[in-house]
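Please, structure for the following, as tokens.
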Amino acid sequence: MKKYLLLLIAFVSMGTVVMAQNDDLPPPTSRPQSAGESNTNDFQGFQPKKKLDLSKFIIEPNVYLMISNNYIMTGFAPFVGYRVYQPSSASSRLGPNTGLYVGGGFTYFYNGYRNLPVQDQFGTVIGKVNANYHTYGPGVFVQYNIWKGFFARLKFETLFRKMDDTQGGVIARDPNNPAAGFYFNKINRVVPGLLLGAGYNLLQSKNFFFPVMVSYNLLHYATDQTYSVYPKNGFVFQLGFITIF
């Protein structure tokens, strides 16, 4: 019995030594490869994402502000474009920002009139009234930077206008008592615009756009000029971040 017990202890001891030796062995994949040998199971890991090239963007942060005794206009119309095409060697011959850009933005501005005189049929001022206009909407554009700051642009926008109908005349709150005040009816209008123009970017080497630009509204005759935001002749002038309507 002792003989068999000694054999069992010896057998278990030998197995433990063999297992310990196997644990000390390097994993099969760690063996050196011979020249020309490829490992199809190589794990490449997570590749870093390609960084966004900020040099391909242009930003035009248009701002509106005009104040007088009884009038105020304020608002903003930021637009951002991204270069989708650049001619070969353009950075050396034509300027670093030459190429085709596409982009979009949003427009909002407010017009307010205060203390407009209300006259009766004899021309006598019998009261005063206020008028307010809210204009907002999206826009998209295609622009080609031609040569060292010179560019051409086509922009389409849809502007929604919520306004007092100053064209429809004032309404008395109490026809028998002018002191009760006056008001305008509220109306909504949609004014699309398709502006084709050209200009020059005063910051030609920067991502920010500060243009001198002349555009023409191709939808000038197709929209109701009574409620359009653009001049009746269809031309729009822009100096820097200021648009002259």
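Helices lie at 2-24, 90-93. The longest strand covers residues 125-147.
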